[in-house]
Amino acid sequence: MAVKIKLMRLGKIRQPYYRVVVADSRTRRNGRAIETIGKYHPKNEPSLIEIDSQRAQYWLGVGAQPTESVQNLLEITGDWQKFKGLPGTEGTLKPQPEKVDKLARFQQALAEANDEPTTAATTPKKKGGNDRVGKTADAAPAEAATKSDDVVDATKDADAPAAES
Fold first, then answer.
1. Span 121-136, pLDDT tens digits
2. DSSP of the chain, one letter per residue?
3. CA distances from 13 to 72, 86, 116 (A)
4. How far apart are CA 5 and CA 60, in angstroms?
5. Cα(154)–Cα(157) distance, rounded to whole angstroms?
6. How far apart are CA 17 and CA 38, in angstroms?
7. What is the pTM of this model?
8. Any idea what the Cα angle at residue 30 is, between residues 34 and 76, rounded to 5°?
9. Do 39 and 50 form a contact (C-beta atoms < 8 A)?
10. Please, are residues 53 and 79 in contact by the beta-carbon 8 Å criterion?
């Protein structure tokens, strides 16, 4: 039986991640695997590559053939150089950044929110028809009061010149 070390694709559309598996060469890409020896997340920055070096060395030693993509991953981790006896067994794998504690991030966001001024509203006022109804109802009694005052003043003025003559 010909054994290959290959990638098994998992994940969603445009969000792939892979398992590095040892499988029969005749099985399909995502088919049954003999053993899972690592994982590969290409979308992370830098890419996450975790391969069990001891198991990879064992399978390479008993004759398992890596695919091109897996061989590139093994060269990055240094396992391929170790198997072949080449210099550079430390590989060129970049370390993953440290994850920030969620509680610390929450406390920082809370402190930033408390420092911001809260004088203005977060949402603007609505502009709509309800404001016009309120304005016309308030304006109507005021206009009526000014008209009645004008009428009274006009009658007083009309009577006043007649009295003078």
1. 667 778 876 655 555 5
2. --EEEEEEEEEETTEEEEEEEEEETTS-TTS--SEEEEEEETTSSSPEEEE-HHHHHHHHHTTPEEPHHHHHHHHHHTHHHHHHT-S-TT--PPPPPPPPPHHHHHHHHHHHHHHS---S-SSPPP-STHHHHHHHHHHHHHHHHHHHHHHHHHHHHHHHHHHH-
3. 24, 38, 40
4. 9
5. 5
6. 11
7. 0.58
8. 75
9. yes
10. yes
**Cβ-Cβ contacts under 8 Å for 84 (sequence gap 6 or more):** none
Indicate the Cα dihedral angle 26, 32, 34, 36, nearest 10°.
Answer: 120
- For tokens 């109802």, what's the residue? 137
Distance separating alpha carbons of residues 149 and 153, to the nearest angstrom: 6
One-letter amino acid for residue 100 of the chain? V
Say if CB 20 and CB 36 are below 8 A apart: yes
pLDDT in tens, 5-27: 999 999 999 999 999 999 998 98
